[in-house]
Protein 1
Amino acid sequence: MRVELASSSFKNKQAKRDKGETWRRLKSAKYLYLMLIPACVWVIAFAYAPMFGLYMAFVNYQPGGEFWSQFFTSKFVGLDWFVYFYNSGDFLRLMRNTLLSSAMTILISFPAPIIIALALNEVKNKFFKKTVQSVAYLPYFVSWVIAANIFITLLSSDGMVNGMLKSLGLIDESILFFQEKNYFWSIVASANTWKSMGYNSIIYLAAIAGINPEQYEASTVDGANKWKQMLHITLPSLKPTAIILLILAVANVMNTGFDQYYLMQNESIMATADVIDTYTYRYGLSQGMFSYAAAVGLFKSVVSIILLTTINKVFKRALF
Amino acid sequence: MRQAPHWDDFIFKGIVYLILLAVFCVTFLPFLNILAISLNDATDSVRGGISFWPRQFSLQSYETVLGDSQIWSALRVTIARTVVGVPLSLFTITMLAYVLSRKDIIGGKTLTFIFLFTMYFSGGLIPYYMVLKSLGLLDTFWVFIIPNLVNVFYMIIVRTFINELPHELEESAKIDGANDLQIFLKVYLPLCLPVLATVGMFLAIDQWNAWFDSYAFTSSMELKTLQAKLVQILNQADTSQMTSGANASIRQAISPQSIRMAITIIATLPILLVYPLVQRFFAEGMTLGSVKM
């Protein structure tokens, strides 16, 4: 109301009044701004200061001494660290590991929750349904430390998986899953899927719950069996959700996650088990090559945000 | 015209149950396996081949683990970070969510963007570590609390919830002479209890499961959490565990598998205990979160 009145008066008067108005609103909201202080201090300290700290990727930072003073007096080297990374033999290996193990994860972990949701939807027995759901969601809530412990134990030379394969007569000698580099991507993909498939099925179940039951009734009259109903009613209704989740997964190929790789890798399989995140950790925190590690980390962040925004833009235009 | 039940529907049902049974086995049996190993005699476990039932039942591993003062210290730190961290984070997150839900605040859009942007771009590990170092947080208990005060994703969940509350509440409280802080504390905070329960559970699980901060940002033994301790043991066990034919006595001396499994079970147990409580919030958290994705 006040703003409308102001627009009808003289320009300079209006500006003055608007200024007064803004000031009055700011003042009346002083408690709101006070309440923002903790979160703002947090976001500056733990989100934006590190972004600012990325400057260290462009200098030759030497550890020791007070960080910020050291930071500004370090020699500027431009893109040298990036060039160094590109020319090192590690670049291609890390990109291959990151992209291919992500792709493998998507290949298994994308369809798994859809299949689970479709199957759960067909079950009428409440107790059975609830039990399966409870158990399937559980891995999502245990830490990667525990998940890695479980996988390493299951896949160890005298573990359950080797035991089963032996008793089925498929192998005579134990497979050393964590010694053979070709298995690692599949192990990570399975572990990722194991951890997330149950929980991710919730979102598909929510989509199924939104389907109009009349569609099923009508198709029954037309003589469709359960299989046909699933194929022609349930599955198509999941398409929008599935597409969004697939886009998100593809946009996040660079963000493999750190925990599962770090916790399950070992010296003998680094050729395939090393990804950008674990590499950054090793060079930065373990070996003290801070500037180099920061540059590698920045490379990853930039590539992933470019991927995210382009894929988002392209698909928004194409789909919605 | 009624049709006889399709016999292919029976096959379909069978396949459905088979798939779900497989899902059940794949998620449940690994837990059963580590439970069996942890309850088996440590020396006997080295022979391997334990599946779902202990071969030589023994509580020895649990006695060893619970007799270790380092494990108790780790358990205390883990509990402390959860008990201290969750209420503080919850309060900061809700306060932020409330302010950002207000339509009348100047700069609200910009502020929201400032917070949302951090979900998509970050400085990465090394500059983050440098910041922790220059703030003097390394190797202190507060490194578990302060950097976790805000979680933008959970903030969005709370904000979505607040947005759905009637805004007349705010106006009537204002007429009664309450200021914004009072409105938040006395009107909105109590109304937010359902969403706070959900987010609080998630925060508690996050704090309980966190390992990297304790592992990489602290060096004192007194600050190692249960999960970080487990990583250390896993690292020690690594080479011996994964190579076959290694000398069994050396393996046992480093870290018997049963003991590692006993710690794993102890670290999982609290999650299992709160699990029934949390479960009814899952769907809520998932669907609330997806609104703004």
Protein 2
Amino acid sequence: MAGPSTRLRAIKLYKELHRLGRDYPDEHYNFQGKLRRLFEKNRALTDSEEIEKAFKLGEYIKNETLALYSLRKYRHLKRNYPANDSPS
Amino acid sequence: MHPSSARLLNILVPVKRAVDYAVKIRVNPQQTGIDLNVKHSMNPFDEIAVEEAVRIRERLSKGSEPVTITALTIGPAKSIETLRTALAMGADSAVHVEIPESAPAPEPLGVAKAIKAVIEKQKEKEGVDMVILGKQAIDDDLGQTGQMLASLLGWGQATFASKVELDLDAKNATVTREIDGGLEQVRVKFPMVITTDLRLNEPRYASLPNIMKAKKKPVTKLTPTDLGVSLEPQMEVIKVVEPPKRVGGSKVESVDELVEKLKTAGFTAV
């Protein structure tokens, strides 16, 4: 691990993903376990390029999970509250 | 109070702690309502309302108009979580009208009266120019609070908004509404009540840093007695039952079999 600032960045990312994982819709998907394992796997990285790649992957997963949540919610709402496009 | 380009635009966003959208609704054993021992979260339409208020502020802060957004909720102690979400999404401060845990859920008229009382209290400071609410709550689907509030206040209303454009100099807003058969455009003067429809915007997810920041934002606690409002229900729910379970159909092998089944079911040839 290179430097205290990367360490802080990693902790920040971990906390964000951890918080996100709490709302995961599938109970049988071990979000926390996977998160832990992926972070532990990368803890010994020293090359700054590799570290950046790992951060990018973390950010990517964060955005994908956010997209999953908002799509799921939007689809549910759209189904239950359809747009009025025909006179009832 | 009318905003001019040098003064504040004050937006009030009432939000409701409602049953979460993903929960499978079940009728309670007493058949008087639904099982409330489930996950709750902010009503999705109210999330859209908070988002709209924040976007209005983002659009306007290109000029010099500071916009303040106040979130408001009426509910038990747990409703503070909903206020924290609103604060994390961008509201500046919040008001919590706390009711006892055992109290029945307030009815729209009671809620509207309470919101009106909060607005009158705010008049002593800078007043409220705009109230943005969700069009209905997903757990009761009543869709009455916004309209009742506008009526009690004597303000114009634009409900089921799918687009809101403000004109601060002209002191009005042009709102596109979703109605049966299409869209309608109305022009409303300040102060006004707007209720949000699904297609108004996509609410942001409150990120962890914002949730942390929200912990420092001020929350005012009030009670219905402070506001001089009674939230006693005026209606009694007599019975709630689930719709009849859907019976599966059966497949037939031939036309003759279909005719036989129709005959036994009591259908006769026309």
